[in-house]
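Dig into what follows:

_____
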Amino acid sequence: GDVTSEGDTLIIDGHKIKVHGEKDPASIPWGKDGVDYVIESTGVFTTLEGAHKHIEGGAKKVVITAPSKDAPMFVVGVNDDKLNKEDEIISNASCTTNCLAPLAKVINDKFGIEDGLMTTVHSMTATQKTVDGPSHKDWRGGRTASGNII
């Protein structure tokens, strides 16, 4: 394929894609650019209020790629049959939930689950400490980033 750029436009095999660099999602002209669906994956705008800024910019729907405190949450294969087409903003839960929940649902529906234990293997994160130390947010977050399995 052929990839080029012209100003604020990325061109991939002749398809033009506008590129924006805005701190405030309400300043991104989604409507003007013909964008109906926005995938909010910054990890910053995970509430209905925050994600709604994309709607203010002209998007019709927003999918948050992280757990949300107040947006309806759906996992494909688990509860996506409950989606409401009137919802402007939804959460697709966490990457861990999307890995575990569909499998757990199948096992639970067929055999039942009484107890469960899981481990998440994750690469380094931007907020993780480089050396072991106390974490005010989460005691497990005090582990050293380089101790993760990458």
Q: What stands out?
A: The CA atoms of residues 10 and 17 lie 5 Å apart. Residues 24-116 form a domain with the Rossmann fold fold (CATH 3.40.50.720). The mean pLDDT is 90. The two ends are 31 Å apart (CA to CA).
